[in-house]
Write a structure and sequence with these properties.
The complex is a heterodimer of chains A (620) and B (98).
Chain A: E1 6-11, H1 17-25, E2 29-33, E3 40-47, E4 53-58, H2 70-79, E5 91-97, H3 101-112, E6 118-123, H4 125-130, E7 133-135, H5 137-144, E8 148-150, H6 159-170, H7 186-200, E9 201-204, H8 210-218, H9 223-241, H10 244-264, H11 269-286, H12 289-305, H13 307-321, H14 329-334, H15 339-345, H16 352-361, H17 370-381, H18 393-418, E10 429-431, H19 440-474, H20 486-489, H21 491-503, H22 510-519, H23 525-538, H24 542-545, H25 549-556, H26 559-570, H27 576-586, H28 590-616
Chain B: E1 8-10, E2 20-25, H1 32-40, E3 48-54, E4 63-67, E5 70-74, H2 76-79, E6 82-86
Antiparallel strand pairs in B: 1-6, 2-3, 2-6, 3-4, 4-5
Classes of the chains: A alpha/beta (620), B alpha+beta (98).
C-alpha cells in the first residue's frame, strides 16, 4: 500500500466527481479492484501546490451512507476505515452539485459528521448559473463548518484553490469539522440541508432549462425512440465509414513489415513463425483497433453527455415486458464494447434476480471483440453496395447482426425470467442528470485506456494463442514427397478434423473448427487464427500470399458457410474473461457453466438454421 | 385557488408540467430499498413535483418527474404510491414552508 497521504473523492452520483478526478490527476491513473469485491478502484497521483504528491481515490457515487448496492457499500466502508485494502483517507473532497444543493447537502452533512478533514468542492457552478442560480460559497462554508470552493471541473476552474486547501488539511493546519453531539436521522438531515441551501442561494431566477427542452424530444415516446434508433444506426455506420483510412494504413504497415522480414531472412521455420504467426496473426487483429475505438467513442460520448440514462428510460417499457429493469440497459449497452465491464456494471442493479438475468444475457450483446470477426466476413462476402439513401449494405448487415443479438437477448431474458430466475421484477428508479457537453480530454483519456487494454490483449492473449496455433499448425512437417497440405497434416488440422464431425452439419469447414478453439481465449483470435491457417496453407505460393484474408476466405467458403459463421458469432460462447468475471460476480461456477451451455446450444442452432435456410434458398 | 386544484391525485394522473406537491406517500406499497432511494431523491411529504415525460409508446413506460431540483425516473407502480395535490410547494397542509 502506498505510504502517501490518501485523499478520497466522495459525492452523489452525477455530481461531476469523475470529471473532477480526471482534472486533478490527469492521465496518471491506476485502475484496480478492491479485494474480495468486484468494485473498481480508481486511483491517481495528485500534486499539491508545493509539489508534494498525494494519492487520490475516486469512490463510487452514493446518495447516502446506507448502501443499497455493493458499490455504495465500498464508499461507506472506505470513509469509515473498514474497507480491506484501503486505509482510512487522511482527508476527503466532498463533491456537491451546485445546482442540486438540497439533495447533495443532506449527504454532505452525513459525511461531514464523520469528522474527517473535509473540503467541499461546489462543482458545476457554471451549470447552476445557466439555470439561473446564484450561490454564496462563504455562507455555505460557514454553515457547514468546512471550506467550500466553487469549481468547474470540466474547465479546471477552482482547482488551484482546492489543492491549496487540501494542503492545509493534510498538514493538520485546518480545524476538523464540528460535529453534532447527537446522531441525526434522515428527516433532520434533510430539513437541515434545506435550511442551509436556502441560506446559500443568493438569487434564483427562472431561466430556460436546456435539459427540460431537450428531454421533450429525447424522452418523447415516438420521437425519442426514433432518435435513439437513429443514433445507434449512425454509430454502426460510422464504425465502417470512419475506419477505412486508418485500417488501410495499419494493413499497409503490416504488409511492409511482412515483406521486410521475408526479404531480410532466408526461408526457414523461423521466418514462417515471424510472418505467418506474429505479423499476419497479431496484425489481423490490431487492424480492428480503429473500429473498436469508434464504437467506444460513441459509448463514452453517450455516457458523458447524460444521454445514456435517457436511453434507459426509453427502453424501460420494453425491458419491463421481458422482466428486466430499464437500468439493465446501461450494462447491456456497455456490453457492446465488452461484456466484462458490462457485467461489472450490473452491480448498480439492486434486485438480485434482475441482476443475474442481466449478467446471463450480457454476452449476447455484440462486443467489440466480435467486430473483427463480423468485419472480415462482411468485408469478404457482402458487396459494398449502396442500398439507397446513402446507406451501405455492409453497415446494414452489421446493424442486423447487432439487432439479432439484442432480440436474442430479450427472448432469452423472457425465458429465464419464467424459469431459472423466476420472481417479481425489480423496479426502475434513476436520477436523470443534466445534459452537458463532455470535456474532450475525458473522452480521449477514456479512449486511450480502452486502446491500451486492447493492445495489451493483442500483445499477450492474442499473441500467445496465435503462436500456439502456429506451432500446432506447423508440426509435424509434411514430408516433401507427400502431396497432402501442411494444414491437413498438422496436429491442429487433425484435432479440427475430429471437431468438424460435430460442426459439419451446420456448414462449418475444417478451418472454422480450427479457428473456434483458440477463439475461446478471446473471440477476435478467430480472425488471426484464420489468417494463420491460410498463411501457412499458402506456403511459398506468391500469388496466394499476396491475397488478403478476405479474398482467401471468399475462395474457400461458400456463402451459406460464411452466413452460418456470422450467426454462430451472434451467440458465440464467450471468452475466458467473460466466464471469469461471471464466476466472480455470481460467486460460483454454477451460473457461468449454465451461461456457456445455453450459448453453445443457441450458437449451434442459429448457425444450423442459417446454413440450411441459405442453402435451401440457393445462395452461393 | 380553485378548489379542484387541491384535490388529491396519484402522481400517475397528474397532467404533464403541472406544478404539484406531495401530499402522502404510501411507504408500505414500496420495498424498503425503493422507499429509501425515493427519500434520497428528495421525495417526501410536502416536496414539489412536476411530471415532465411519460415514457413508452403504449403508455406503460416510466415517468420522468422533477422533484425539487432533481429529475428522476420511476415506474408507474412507484408513482401510483405517491399522492399529490396541484399547486406550488408549501400551499398544502403538509407543506414545510407553510
Amino acid at each position: 500500500m502506498s505510504a502517501l497521504p490518501l485523499i478520497a473523492l466522495v459525492g452523489n452520483p452525477n455530481a461531476g466527481k469523475s470529471a473532477l478526478f480526471n482534472a486533478l490527476t490527469g492521465a496518471r491513473q491506476k485502475l484496480g479492484n478492491y479485494p474480495g469485491v468486484t468494485v473498481e478502484r480508481k486511483a491517481g497521483r495528485l500534486s499539491l501546490s508545493d509539489g508534494r504528491p498525494v494519492e487520490l481515490v475516486d469512490l463510487p457515487g452514493t446518495y447516502s451512507l446506507s448502501p443499497a448496492s455493493p458499490d455504495e457499500q465500498v464508499t461507506r466502508d472506505v470513509v469509515l476505515g473498514r474497507q480491506d485494502g484501503e486505509k482510512r483517507p487522511d482527508a476527503l473532497i466532498l463533491v456537491v452539485d451546485a445546482a442540486n444543493l438540497d439533495n447533495h447537502l443532506r449527504f454532505a452533512l452525513e459525511v461531514i459528521a464523520l469528522r474527517l478533514p473535509t473540503v467541499v468542492a461546489l462543482n458545476m457552478v457554471d451549470l447552476a448559473t445557466r439555470d439561473g442560480l446564484e450561490l454564496d460559497a462563504a455562507v455555505l462554508s460557514r454553515e457547514l463548518g468546512v471550506p467550500v470552493i466553487p469549481t468547474v471541473a470540466v474547465r479546471k476552474r477552482g482547482l488551484d484553490h482546492l489543492r491549496k486547501d487540501l494542503e492545509s488539511l493534510i498538514d493538520g493546519a485546518a480545524a476538523r469539522p464540528r460535529a453534532p453531539s447527537v446522531e441525526r436521522d434522515f428527516d433532520t438531515l434533510r430539513s437541515e440541508a434545506r435550511r442551509i441551501a436556502r441560506a446559500a442561494i443568493v438569487r434564483e431566477t427562472p431561466s430556460r432549462r436546456l435539459t427540460a427542452a431537450v428531454d421533450r424530444v429525447a424522452l418523447h415516446p415516438v420521437l425519442g425512440l426514433l432518435l435513439l434508433l437513429g443514433l445507434l444506426f449512425i454509430m454502426f455506420q460510422a464504425v465502417y465509414a470512419w475506419s477505412e483510412a486508418p485500417i488501410a494504413m495499419i494493413e499497409g504497415l503490416a504488409e511492409t513489415a511482412g515483406n521486410a522480414v521475408t526479404g531480410a531472412l532466408p526461408d526457414s521455420i523461423f521466418r514462417s513463425f515471424l510472418v505467418d504467426g506474429v505479423i499476419n496473426g497479431v496484425g489481423s487483429v490490431i487492424v480492428f483497433l480503429p473500429q473498436i475505438l469508434i464504437l467506444f467513442f460513441f459509448i463514452l460520448m453517450l455516457e458523458a453527455t447524460g444521454y445514456m440514462v435517457r436511453a434507459a428510460f426509453l427502453m424501460d417499457g420494453l425491458m419491463e415486458k421481458v422482466g428486466l429493469s430499464g437500468r439493465a440497459f446501461i450494462p447491456l449497452l456497455s456490453s457492446f464494447a465488452c461484456a466484462v465491464p458490462g457485467i461489472m456494471a450490473t452491480r448498480t442493479i439492486s434486485d438480485p434476480k434482475d441482476r443475474l438475468t442481466t449478467i446471463l444475457i450480457a454476452p449476447l450483446m455484440t462486443c467489440s471483440a466480435r467486430l473483427p470477426v463480423y468485419a472480415v466476413i462482411i468485408g469478404a462476402f457482402i458487396p459494398a453496395r449502396d442500398v439507397g439513401w446513402g446507406i451501405g449494405l455492409q453497415g446494414l448487415v452489421l446493424f442486423v447482426l447487432y439487432l439479432a443479438g439484442i432480440v436474442g437477448a430479450m427472448l432469452v431474458a423472457l425465458v429465464l425470467r419464467m424459469t431459472v430466475t423466476k420472481g417479481k421484477s425489480g423496479g426502475f428508479l434513476m436520477e436523470m442528470p443534466k445534459y452537458q457537453w463532455p470535456r474532450w480530454q475525458d473522452i480521449v483519456l477514456g479512449l486511450w485506456q480502452r486502446a491500451f487494454v486492447f493492445l495489451k490483449r493483442a500483445g499477450t492473449i492474442i499473441f500467445a494463442s496465435t503462436v500456439i496455433l502456429w506451432l500446432l499448425l506447423s508440426f509435424p512437417r509434411v514430408p516433401d514427397d507427400n502431396p497432402a497440405s501442411q494444414v491437413d497434416h498438422s496436429i491442429a488440422g487433425r484435432i479440427a478434423g475430429g471437431l468438424n464431425v460435430v460442426l459439419e452439419p451446420v456448414g462449418f469447414n475444417r478451418d472454422i473448427s480450427l479457428a473456434l478453439i483458440p477463439a475461446m481465449a478471446a473471440r477476435e483470435v478467430a480472425v488471426s487464427a484464420l489468417a494463420t491457417v491460410y498463411s501457412i496453407d499458402a506456403g511459398d505460393d506468391e500469388a496466394k500470399l499476396e491475397r488478403s484474408l478476405g479474398e482467401r476466405l471468399k475462395d474457400n467458403w461458400p456463402l451459406p458457410t460464411a452466413l452460418a459463421f456470422l450467426a454462430w458469432f451472434i451467440f458465440a460462447p464467450q471468452c475466458i474473461s467473460t466466464i471469469a468475471v461471471t464466476r466472480r460476480e455470481t460467486n460460483g461456477w454454477k451460473w457461468p457453466m449454465f451461461m456457456v451451455g445455453y450459448l453453445f446450444v443457441l450458437a449451434y442452432l442459429a448457425a444450423g438454421a442459417t446454413y440450411w435456410t441459405a442453402t435451401a434458398l440457393g445462395l452461393s | 385557488m380553485p378548489l379542484n386544484e387541491c384535490l388529491p391525485l396519484r402522481l400517475t394522473e397528474l397532467p404533464l408540467r403541472q406544478l404539484a406537491y406531495v401530499d402522502i406517500i404510501d411507504w408500505n406499497a414500496l420495498s424498503e430499498t425503493d422507499g429509501q432511494r425515493l427519500r434520497e431523491f428528495g421525495l417526501c411529504e410536502g416536496a414539489s413535483v412536476e411530471t415532465l415525460n411519460h415514457g413508452g409508446i403504449f403508455g406503460h413506460g416510466p415517468i420522468a418527474c422533477k422533484v425539487g431540483r432533481m429529475t428522476i425516473a420511476m415506474r408507474r407502480n412507484h408513482a401510483a404510491a405517491i399522492t399529490v395535490r396541484a399547486g406550488p410547494e408549501g400551499t398544502g397542509p403538509e407543506g414545510e414552508a407553510a
